Amino acid sequence: MLELISHFFQPNHSISCxxxxxxxxxxxxxxxxxDPNVFEELIVWLRSEQEIEVHCHGGEWAWRxxxxxxxxxxxxxxxxxxxxxxxxxxxxxxQTRIEALRLLPNALTTNCAMVLWDQHQGAFxxxxxxxxxxxxxxxxIQAWRLIDxxxxxxxxxxxxxxxxxxxxxxxxxxxxxSLINAILGFERSIVFDHPGTTRDxxxxxxxxxxxxxxxxxxxxxRAAESSVELAGIDRSRKLAQSADLVIWTFDQTQQIxxxxxxxxxxxxxxxxxxxxxxxxxxxxxxxxxxxxxxERVKNIGRHSVIHTSAVRGDGIDVLMRAIVQELIPIxxxxxxxxxxxxxxxxxxxxxxxxxxxxxxxxPERLPLDASTKLKLTIALKGLxx
Length: 385
What we know:
Blueprint: H1 2-5, E1 9-11, E2 24-31, E3 39-48, E4 51-56, H2 59-74, H3 81-88, H4 95-103, H5 110-120, H6 123-136, H7 140-151, H8 154-157, E5 164-169, H9 176-184, E6 202-208, E7 211-217, H10 227-241, E8 245-250, H11 256-267, E9 281-286, E10 299-300, E11 303-307, H12 316-327, H13 342-359, H14 370-382
Helix pairs in contact: 4-5, 6-7, 6-14, 7-13, 13-14
């Protein structure tokens, strides 16, 4: 292995590859196979005589180039790192823990990485084992509660390697673009004092309290005056249906009863959760409170109103806290079990359906027969892979 990488890697300080020590990192230059004059600065870590880690910047293109260099020089096909993990932990680690480690490099924030690391360390497996023990002891109520506890993190588990989708909606010219700029901390949207300026969806990425968010500024909802505006408004409506959270924004020029009717017409009962998905949650924001004639509205329907001024920055911190509270009402503690795969949440719900099928609404009144106990145990252990 050292002989192979010596064709490409030159450590700093004139050290030869033959002098590298096991379990130490070395910084240096990696010359390309096709053109030795083209090089990449990186770190090589000799884990053993047969195992070397290469750490580089430059994204996917950089590491694929390094893999290509090695394959061409040795005339071999290298194992993808995900497959290497599978072989390294085969027989010693559950598939769940391997999957958490596979996803770890794609974690978008430190918070997300810590959750995945906890699952790799066995948090999810341990929780499933406790549920199995409850079933074995015929404590169906406890098993049900433990599954409920896991499922409260189901939505969060799906947003560890992808962003929460937050979209600004509302009438034109109420300051949605200025508001999104205030949240993102830089000017991302076109801001101009004319209705319909934002004719398409503009997206920006950020992290709020350590959780990844994609905040979209949509075309204002109004009677469109052109086909371009109409197409932008239609895209905004469709995007909202797939969002995790809609921030409905208005100012003093709108009629309150019309706002409530528009929200209900678009989303029905926001936040209602089905077995597999949920309608977007909704926050209602009254912007431009810096205007002297602005009367503050307390509630629209069942929604409490958040008051902001994107120009002065008033209420932006309140809004950002409300976003996190709406999307992640309970933050998992360190070491907590979180179902981080869609299949895990789906299977947990199916297990609850199986429990309800046999025990109805009063499972504590019925004994666990051997057949049902076996079915539940097999289903739960299936989650461990």
